[in-house]
Design brief:
Layout: H1 3-25, H2 31-39, H3 42-47, H4 65-89
Amino acid sequence: MRPWIVIWLTLVAAHVAMMGAGWLVGSEWLAPIVVGSIYLPLWPLGKLGLPVIRLSGSILPLPTAFGWAAIVISWALVYCFIAAVIARLWPTRNRAA
């Protein structure tokens, strides 16, 4: 398996584990991470006028189906870029010159 895929899967698994721990444990230091990882990708898309958040009276409105897809795609792309950079910079013994 290519190194960047292993790194990418590790980053995605860590993100999912942090989200799950934040919802299960409900700790106060994990809550900003969970909320930020959901609403951070939606903020610029919402500013562009895309329907990513349901308009409701609650403090934290729920994302729409398009919003959830945007969250998953944006974090997958961010982690793919990070994994590619790490794999490129990581020294390997068997790399062909």
